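seq:
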Amino acid sequence: MGNMKIRHDKIIKMKTDNRFKYTGALVLGMHDALVEISGIIAGLTFAIADRKIIIMTGAIAAVAASLSMAAANYQAQRADENPYALTAALYTGAMYIGTSAALIFPFALIQNRFWALGMMGLIAVLIIFGFNCAVGHAMNRPFMKRFGEMLIICTGVSVASFIIGMLAKYFMGVQI
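struct:
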């Protein structure tokens, strides 16, 4: 019983601690960008040969999705009567854009789109690891389970998008 009280007190302290006030907003922006943009880029890489089109499409999708995510988080926070709804929304949008830029960046540097895709995958793993490590350390809890979960979800979506890209290319006869 005493252990439950200590754990409950820790949770209450974390929720009122300003360092953790926007962690959910950051996770929302980062994780959604990792899943969505890596999936889009993976699908495009196998469907389109021109990496400039991949960069352009990824950037357009990233900006549109970041605005959408920020607006959705704002509305969700307002529905929960959070007085800091706008700040949470800005954190979500900024994290989405930052994560997206990191994922798209290899295509601007590396000529071979498949090597760029590999580098994007490595960057995604490093982002997932770094974020989960930092949050786990800050909250004093193990992070490997969350890291593995986030990695599996991101990889699954990228593989599904790859398959969709290949099927679209085949059935639509796209030769770009």
